[in-house]
Automatic annotation (TrEMBL):
Any one GO cellular component localisation term in the record: plasma membrane
Gene name of this polypeptide: mrpA_3
Main location: membrane
Location within or outside the cell: Cell membrane
Annotated ranges, domain MrpA C-terminal/MbhE: 106-162
Name this polypeptide is given: Na(+)/H(+) antiporter subunit A
Length: 338
């Protein structure tokens, strides 16, 4: 509540973006308390990391001060916010308490069925993994397709930065690496990147034993690539992480997921019925889940990285955001300020 009030009251958009990132971290801690660690991973990486960088990238182009608005508009906005907040609070009055054993979600037969049958049928300790990748595999395929569509939509609407003659700007046609005054950040950040990538691989491979999976591993992997871009600059990053390769990886992950389902059909089973992938149904189920989780991880990583690189590429050549100065202005890598 305090963070929300502070973000509404501040007139500095940079401060508001930072408060949004803090709110995401607090929300992630709530999910940890509720034993939803996999959701907490995603919230921390996307909410506090990717979203914050996108907002700061926008501020580097548009400015960080709020324009004065007529008092009548402020009153109307406050009235709408109060009414909406009152409706939301009223809607929570009928909700059961957290952890209530008599809540509908606890007493519904389907929930009890999955709790009792899933460990026996799948022999996977983390119940969330077979639920997402097997029991509701169609739904997860749709979610992956939504992520794929988001990446394609960004490329279609914004696309890579181009010269005036329409040809794409290649890596190395600009200088936007961090200056020498950020040497400590560069050294410390480069030490963190291998650890983040290793942890992402662990989350990807360990999703059937603990919190994790393709979505979580994808956002963590993308956050490491985003940190690399911030440290060395978009030009140097594109020399290592080719935009054309990322575009192909966006489709590759979804293709792996869909082809896994087609393979189960060719082997005589139903679509996404992984049990036919091996001589033993349990092994086949595990192979199928690993394959589709890999596809999800590839698509999520490629889409998030593409979005960040696309925004950063358009910001390149204008003003490049690094950090706020002591006087509240936003310092850019070309020495300017907003």
């Amino acid at each position: 509540m305090t963070i929300a009030y502070a973000s509404v009251r501040t007139k500095n958009l940079f401060e508001a973006a930072m408060l949004f990132g803090i709110f995401s971290l607090v929300s992630a801690s709530f999910f940890v308390v509720l034993d939803a660690v996999d959701v907490a991973m995603t919230e921390a990486a996307v909410g506090a990391g990717v979203s914050t960088i996108l907002m700061l990238s926008t501020l580097a182009v548009t400015g960080h001060k709020v324009r004065p608005r007529p008092v009548q508009r402020n009153v109307l906005a406050i009235a709408v916010s109060v009414l909406l907040g009152a409706a939301l609070v009223y809607g929570t009055l009928d909700m059961p308490r957290i952890g209530d054993p008599d809540a509908p979600v606890q007493t519904h037969p389907i929930a009890r069925h999955f709790i009792e049958v899933s460990p026996v049928e799948t022999q996977i300790p983390n119940m969330v993994t077979p639920l997402l990748a097997s029991y509701r595999g169609y739904d997860t395929l749709g979610e992956t397709a939504v992520v794929f569509t988001a990446g394609i939509g960004v490329l279609a609407l914004i696309g890579r930065r181009r010269r005036r003659d329409g040809t794409p700007v290649e890596a190395g046609e600009g200088v936007d690496a961090m200056q020498d005054r950020h040497r400590v950040l560069r050294i410390v950040g480069k030490q963190l990147i291998p650890a983040i990538l290793l942890y992402a691989c662990y989350v990807q491979a360990h999703g059937d034993f603990g919190p994790g999976g393709g979505f979580q591993a994808g956002v963590i992997f993308a956050s490491a690539l985003m940190l690399f871009m911030l440290l060395v600059g978009i030009d140097e990053a594109e020399k290592v992480i080719k935009p054309k390769v990322l575009e192909k990886l966006i489709a590759l992950g979804l293709l792996i997921y869909g082809c896994t389902g087609l393979l189960t059909v060719l082997k005589g089973g139903a679509f996404l019925d992984y049990k036919v992938l091996a001589h033993d149904p349990i092994h086949g189920l595990h192979y199928g889940i690993l394959a589709v989780e890999l596809g999800v991880g590839i698509t999520v990583t490629a889409v998030i990285t593409t979005i960040i690189f696309t925004f950063a590429g358009h910001m390149r050549g204008r003003q490049k955001l690094v950090a706020p100065a002591t006087d509240g202005t936003v310092v850019t890598t070309d020495g300017g300020a907003l």
